[in-house]
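User: New here, any thoughts?
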Amino acid sequence: MKIIDQKMNSLLYYPYINLPQNDWTIRALLYYDNVNAIVPTQYFYEPEHYNPFMREAIMNELITPINPMDVLNNPYEVSLRFIEYLSARKSVIERRRSFFSNQAHQNKGRTNESCCHHNLPFPDSTRTNNKA
């Protein structure tokens, strides 16, 4: 039998800023060479906005915060197109905002660990399948 090494080097965590303190995150940190999270610029200057687990992981260089404006070739051009896209779809956005607002009220009191995780190459038994 031929085994093919399909290990991926990096993981980009989204859409949340703080990775949850759970088994999924620990496995991701062990499996991937780099775990990155998209964060607002403000977090680079005010790290107290991170939850304690995330702040400690960043301080120990286990997770790398990424500012999209620093890694995009033309960030303002991308931003302008994104704003135009959203402006042309206001009714869809309002419908989705209402849906998510209703979901947030229904899930009030649940921990941040009830977030979505995307495309990890772990068996289904280890993958968390919670709703945001």
